[in-house]
């Protein structure tokens, strides 16, 4: 079976790693998006501007990327307001209670060999896979 | 004045880092929930791309962390590292991961791609984001009300 390395995925991942390395080495902060965003909801002194700038950077990148040939998807596979609403709620609650998401735990936490993050990543990966299995193959 | 230039530098770093992160999201395909669900659909038409996203990220971050960052007592442009002091694998961690996994599995969207996608003004994505913010607020209230305080991020060196 022929298998070709998805170079875009790999390169994108490298950029994520670079971003996280930069933020931690220079600013001493974890590039965990759920944490960065939730920190904006409970603003504390000295914690707002850098998060706003980080988010601006992320949003801006989506305007930059098309010039490199990478666009946002035209449509979403799950688009019903009800279901994305439920999904969003679960993601918001889960990442807050669990202190992280795919970037926070999956990249930064695992990269630091944090036991907590390794466990969290294994759990949310397994649950996500199971959820997709149920939704696509059982329902 | 070292402090002022440090302060300016760290804000610039935040902007640059955010841009790199968003580019990583766009180029890797993480912003495409179809591709994410394709990775999570391991019994179906499996798309292993996401493995390479995380692999690429860790291949860069892990060595830099272990060989460079961990040895420092402070970041380059900031006073201290803000790293979690919590090493407990507890119900909150696992429970949170379960809920996050559920939400992620339903729509294939997690916080990074969601924020990156804002400019597309896709109504469903905006609903997701609003719901996500609401969820964070709810979780915060619940955690505050029902007791165990969130572990404080303290200024620990990367060594601990």
Automatic annotation (TrEMBL), chain A:
Main subcellular location: membrane
Topology relative to the membrane: Multi-pass membrane protein
GO cellular component: plasma membrane
Cell compartment(s), UniProt: Cell inner membrane
Keyword rRNA processing (UniProt): no
UniProt keyword list: Cell inner membrane, Cell membrane, Membrane, Transmembrane, Transmembrane helix, Transport
Pfam families assigned: Sulf_transp
Transmembrane regions: 6-27, 48-66, 78-97, 118-138
Protein family according to the UniProt entry: Belongs to the TsuA/YedE (TC 9.B.102) family.
Protein name: YeeE/YedE family protein
Organism: Photobacterium chitinilyticum
The organism's taxonomic lineage, starting at the top: Bacteria, Pseudomonadati, Pseudomonadota, Gammaproteobacteria, Vibrionales
């Amino acid at each position: 079976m022929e298998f070709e390395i998805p170079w875009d995925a790999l390169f994108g991942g490298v950029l994520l790693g670079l971003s996280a390395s930069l933020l931690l080495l220079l600013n001493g902060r974890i590039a965990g998006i759920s944490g960065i965003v939730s920190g904006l909801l409970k603003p504390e002194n000295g914690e707002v501007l850098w998060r706003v700038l980080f988010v601006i950077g992320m949003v801006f990148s989506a305007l930059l990327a098309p010039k490199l040939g990478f666009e946002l998807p035209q449509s979403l596979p799950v688009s019903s307001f009800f279901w994305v609403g439920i999904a969003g709620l679960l993601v918001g609650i889960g990442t807050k209670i669990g202190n992280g998401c795919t970037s926070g735990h999956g990249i930064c936490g695992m990269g630091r060999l944090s036991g907590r993050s390794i466990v969290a990543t294994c759990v949310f990966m397994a649950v996500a896979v199971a959820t997709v299995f149920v939704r696509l193959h059982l329902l | 004045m070292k402090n002022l230039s440090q302060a300016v530098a760290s804000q610039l770093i935040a902007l640059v880092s955010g841009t790199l992160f968003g580019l990583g999201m766009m180029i890797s395909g993480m912003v495409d929930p179809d591709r994410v669900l394709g990775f999570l659909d391991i019994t179906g038409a499996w798309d292993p791309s996401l493995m390479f996203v995380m692999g690429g990220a860790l291949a860069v971050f892990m060595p830099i962390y272990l060989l460079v960052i961990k040895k420092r007592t402070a970041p380059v442009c900031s006073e201290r590292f803000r790293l979690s002091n919590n090493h407990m694998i507890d119900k909150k961690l696992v429970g949170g991961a379960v809920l996050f996994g559920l939400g992620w599995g339903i729509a294939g969207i997690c916080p990074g791609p969601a924020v990156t996608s804002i400019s597309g003004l896709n109504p469903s994505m905006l609903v997701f984001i609003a719901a996500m913010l609401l969820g964070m607020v709810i979780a915060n209230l619940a955690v505050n009300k029902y007791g165990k305080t969130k572990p404080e991020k303290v200024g620990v060196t990367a060594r601990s």
